[in-house]
Write a structure and sequence with these properties.
Helix content: 25-40%
Distance between the termini: 26 Å
CATH architecture of the largest domain: 3-Layer(aba) Sandwich
CATH topology of the largest domain: Aspartate Aminotransferase, domain 2
Low-confidence stretches: 482-486
Order of helices and strands: HHHHEHEHEHEHEHEEHEEHEEHHEEHHHH
Largest sheet: 7 strands, mixed
Subunit structure: The glycine cleavage system is composed of four proteins: P, T, L and H. In this organism, the P 'protein' is a heterodimer of two subunits.
GO cellular component, one term: glycine cleavage complex
CATH superfamily of the largest domain: Type I PLP-dependent aspartate aminotransferase-like (Major domain)
Cofactor: pyridoxal 5'-phosphate
Family: Belongs to the GcvP family. C-terminal subunit subfamily.
Modified residues (N6-(pyridoxal phosphate)lysine): 263
Length: 486
């Protein structure tokens, strides 16, 4: 039941003080024609309502959350404590620079750390999320070519295993997207790449390891092919959790990179934000970065590049997310960053090794941070789809992995355990996956009905997708009320 459906007329609570300034209403034509819909509940009722709603939500703090390519890992509580300090939480973006020197030092220090990790020279924190970072990075690539009078470069190359936002971001910047297939080893097909590269190539978008969880062994040749054609290379940092502190995108030959602080660097993830998708680049692109970079000169000051592409977000980005990321970096240190990556890779390979005798692995070789299973055979032989297994996991208190992605794997389930999970948790998840496989073989109808132990059972997802209800309809309630009064 929604909060609007609870309570009784006249019931209220006293949380906010009485208004101590004159009330000024807009002109009558601009005023609401109907009263604002507000719940009539007591403090006790509203507390119980949101506590009940919170219990129905599922997050990393509730249990195993192996959502592939999303790195849903535990966020240390010290991050939240540091971000809540008054000197960070109670500032205003329009304050004079000399009053926020500590906050500017956070931005500069975090930039230096992340540039070292990625092999970049400069970085902006303005982008609010990964896709926003992609868009910003592509703006840099476009500005670079335009500054050279090279208007013929109109195409961005994107592998078929890329994240769906890659082609969308390229299109938003005005580029045509050229998709190339993966080779038999799961990496970029070099021959297909060579066929499409030319004088019209603006750049290549790639993540390494890719969405299949595989490190492309030909990465240096790939970036060299693009550079020889006069294009630039863009690194999608969504999967950096597998390699941070081990190898740097800049050393692979990438010119620009976006990161996901809300994935790799352990800040809150999901629920619509706030996120942070900082963009780093080599010096050849630094002059095009968005406004308000922090410079150190007799203290800290904001300075904008001469050929800046302008603002991509108000002010300086989601600052408190940067504070959380800096705390995470300080806590792990030089030794802890690569250790986290090693454990992420170890956990993924451990799970894959324990499941490969029952589930078909899309690419049965050493993976990085995640692995992809194909349930095509199980669906053909027993009528159990990737969706059925995912629904079955819900009954065991496990969040499903990513389903039906990447698109080049049929009936795909993509599993990312992350480094913060213990061996005991992984063993429990492995046991559940294996038991679901046995159920699929012996009694598949059980999985067709799953989940049955959740607050909401299986939905008609086709109907839900085609008949979206995106706002609450008060008209029926008002009609009912009028009928009652009459």
């Amino acid at each position: 039941m929604l909060i609007f459906e609870k309570g009784q007329e006249g019931r209220k609570m006293s949380i906010l003080p009485e208004c101590d300034v004159p009330i000024s209403l807009p002109k009558e034509d601009d005023q609401r024609k109907k009263s604002l819909h507000l719940p009539n509940v007591s403090e006790n009722e509203i507390s119980r309502h949101y506590t009940e709603a919170a219990k129905k939500a599922y997050g990393v703090n509730d249990g195993f959350y192996p959502l592939g390519s999303c790195t849903m890992k535990y966020n240390p509580k010290i991050n939240e404590y540091i971000a809540s300090l008054p000197g960070f939480a109670q500032i205003h973006p329009l304050q004079p620079e000399h009053t926020v020197q500590g906050c500017m030092e956070v931005l500069k220090t975090t930039e230096q750390y992340l540039c070292e990790i990625t092999g970049m020279d400069r970085m902006t924190f303005q982008p609010a999320a990964g896709a926003h970072g992609e868009f910003t990075g592509l703006l840099l690539i476009k500005a670079y070519h335009e500054s050279r009078g090279d208007g013929k470069r109109t195409k961005i190359i994107v592998p078929d295993s890329a994240h769906g936002t890659n082609p969308a971001s390229a299109s938003m910047v005005g580029y045509s997207v050229i998709s190339i297939p993966s080779g038999e080893d799961g990496g970029v097909d070099l021959e297909e790449l060579k066929k499409v590269v030319g004088e019209d190539t603006a750049g290549l978008m790639l993540t390494n390891p890719n969405t299949l969880g595989l490190f492309d062994r030909n990465i240096l040749e790939i970036t060299n092919i693009i550079h020889e054609a006069g294009g630039l290379t863009y690194y999608d940092g969504a999967n950096l959790n597998a390699i941070m502190g081990m190898i740097r995108p800049g050393d692979m030959g990438f010119d620009v990179v976006h990161l996901n602080l809300h994935k790799t660097f352990s800040t809150p993830h999901g629920g619509g934000g706030p996120g942070s998708g900082p963009v780093g680049c080599k010096n050849l692109l630094a002059e095009f970065l968005p406004n308000n970079l922090v410079e150190e000169k007799n203290g800290y000051l904001f300075k904008s590049p001469v050929q800046s592409t302008g603002q991509v977000k108000s002010f300086y980005g989601n600052f408190l997310i940067v504070v959380r990321a800096m705390t995470y970096l300080f806590m792990l240190g030089k030794e802890g960053i690569p250790e986290a990556s090693k454990h992420a890779v170890l956990n993924a390979n451990y799970m894959m090794a324990k499941l490969k005798d029952v589930y078909d692995m899309a690419y049965p070789r050493t993976c990085m941070h995640e692995f992809v299973m194909s349930l095509s055979r199980l669906k053909k032989e027993n009528g159990i789809s990737a969706m059925d297994i995912a629904k079955g996991l819900l009954d065991h208190g496990i969040h499903p992995p990513t389903m039906y992605f990447p698109l080049n794997v049929s009936e795909a389930l993509m599993v990312e355990p992350t480094e913060t999970e213990s061996k005991e948790t992984l063993d429990q998840a492995i046991t559940v996956f294996r038991s679901l496989y046995e159920t699929a073989k012996l009694n598949p109808e059980i999985l067709h009905q799953a989940p049955v132990n959740t607050s909401v059972t299986r939905l008609d997802e086709v109907r839900a997708a085609r008949n979206l209800i995106l706002r609450y309809d008060f008209s029926d309630k008002e009609t009912d009320k009028d009928d009652t009064e009459n």
